[in-house]
Design brief:
The protein is an alpha+beta fold and 283 residues long. The chain folds into 2 domains: 2-113 and 266-280, Diaminopimelate Epimerase, Chain A, domain 1 (Roll), CATH 3.10.310.10; 141-260, Diaminopimelate Epimerase, Chain A, domain 1 (Roll), CATH 3.10.310. 18% of the residues lie in helices and 41% in strands. It has an 18-stranded mixed beta sheet that branches. The longest helix is centred in the first third of the chain and has 13 residues, at 73-85.
Length: 283
C-alpha cells in the first residue's frame, strides 16, 4: 500500500488513494496501519477520492480504532491538499466533497498551504447530535464526573461533540475526563468527541481535544467549529473566532444561522510504501 502523509497543525492523517488500493482497509488492518510503534502512525486514514453522485469527490474517514468518522475538519483540509497536489483541483477553485456527515465545500489557497472548508450548519438539537433524554437544545447542562460537576453543551456539525466549559483548560483534564465522556453511551449513544473550552475574549478561545476513536489530539477542525459555535451561541464570542489548539490556530467564521467556515494550514510530511509485514504482525 502507498500512502501520502500530511498533518494539519499536528493532527496527522494518511491518505490512501483507491487507485493504489482498490479495497478500503477495515478492522485490525486499520489499527495496525495507524499504530505509532508498529505501523506508519497517524490519527486516521483518509480513503479517497471515490466517485460520488452528490459531489465532486467522496471521502471515507477511518479512525485509528477502525471506527468510521462522519466528518473531520482537519481531515477535509488534508484531503483537499492531496487533491491539489494530485492536480485534481486548482488553487482558489471551490469544489465539493461528500462525507458521511454531509457534503462540504472546500477551497485550496496559498499554493496549498492554507485550506478553507465550508463545514455546514451546526445544530444543538439532542435528536440530531444525538444525546439521550427528552428532545431539547443541549445547552448549559451539568454532569458529575469523579465527584466534580462540569457544565457542558453539545452540538453536531455532521459528527457529535460535547463541549465542556472551563475557566482554565489543560491537557491534564482532557486526558482525565475526555475518555469518560467519549464512552458515556448512556448519554451519547454514538459516543462523542469532547472539547474543553476556555474563552479568552470576544474573538479568541482555547481548546483541548479528546477525539472519538483517536484520543488526545493536538488539533481538530470539527472540534474547533463546535467549540466556537458554543461560545457564539452562549453570547461569549462574536462570529469571527480564532481557536487556539495545542497544535496551532484554526480560524472560524459563524453566520447568524450557525453556518461555519473553517480555515487552517496543511503540511505535507511524505510519501510512504508500507510493507505487507505490518498487516501480518500481531499487536
Amino acid at each position: 500500500m502507498k500512502f501520502s502523509k500530511y498533518h494539519a497543525l499536528g493532527n496527522d492523517y494518511l491518505v490512501l488513494d483507491p487507485k493504489d488500493c482498490p479495497a478500503c482497509p477495515q478492522g485490525e488492518d486499520v489499527v495496525k496501519i495507524c499504530h505509532r510503534n508498529f505501523g506508519l502512525g497517524s490519527d486516521g486514514i483518509l480513503y479517497g477520492p471515490e466517485k460520488s453522485a452528490k459531489a465532486d469527490f467522496k471521502l471515507r474517514i477511518l479512525n485509528p480504532d477502525a471506527s468510521e468518522a462522519e466528518k473531520s475538519g482537519n481531515g477535509l483540509r488534508i484531503f483537499s491538499r492531496y487533491l491539489f497536489d494530485s492536480k485534481l483541483v486548482g488553487e482558489n477553485q471551490t469544489f465539493t466533497v461528500e462525507t458521511l456527515g454531509g457534503v462540504v465545500k472546500s477551497t485550496v489557497m496559498q499554493n496549498g498551504n492554507f485550506v478553507k472548508v465550508g463545514m455546514g450548519q451546526v445544530s444543538f438539537d439532542s435528536a440530531k447530535i444525538p444525546v439521550c433524554g427528552k428532545p431539547r437544545k443541549v445547552l448549559n447542562e451539568e454532569i458529575e464526573i469523579f465527584g466534580q460537576k462540569y457544565r457542558y453543551c453539545c452540538a453536531t456539525i455532521g459528527n457529535p461533540h460535547c463541549v465542556v466549559i472551563l475557566d482554565k483548560t489543560s491537557a491534564e483534564i482532557a486526558h482525565k475526563i475526555g475518555p469518560v465522556l467519549e464512552n458515556m453511551t448512556s448519554l451519547f449513544p454514538n459516543r462523542t468527541n469532547v472539547q474543553f473550552l476556555e474563552v479568552v475574549d470576544r474573538n479568541n478561545i482555547k481548546i483541548q481535544i479528546w477525539e472519538r476513536g483517536a484520543g488526545y489530539t493536538l488539533s481538530s477542525g470539527s472540534s474547533s467549529s463546535a467549540a466556537a459555535c458554543v461560545a457564539y451561541k452562549l453570547g461569549l464570542c462574536d462570529g469571527d473566532i480564532t481557536v487556539h489548539t495545542p497544535g496551532g490556530d484554526i480560524f472560524i467564521n459563524i453566520t447568524p444561522d450557525f453556518y461555519v467556515t473553517m480555515g487552517g494550514s496543511v503540511t505535507p510530511v511524505g510519501r510512504y510504501e508500507m510493507s505487507e509485514a505490518v498487516l501480518k504482525q500481531k499487536i
